[in-house]
Design goal:
The chain is about 65% helix and about 0% strand. By secondary structure, the protein is mainly α.
Length: about 90
Amino acid sequence: MTRYRWIHARKAEGYSVTVCCATAEVSTSAFYDWLERSASPTDADWEEALLVNEVHRVHDLLDDTYGSPRTLSEDQAPLDPMSPINHSYRSDLA
């Protein structure tokens, strides 16, 4: 999570943008510039959201069981061509 996303999340919770910017050591003008540029999600935002959804799907399939023995079998399963997780993601997760 970037500093700007953190500030945006705190702003949604009702915190002061000025205080959050000072805490994150960024100027309020830089935050508002970022906010104006980030009106729509980037490709990286979409990829991260897809990955998070895939992780939730795997945990649901495994009855929310955590740990390497259960998730290893899922990790070694053939890749679904429609799955957002590709080989590079899987190697990062290993």
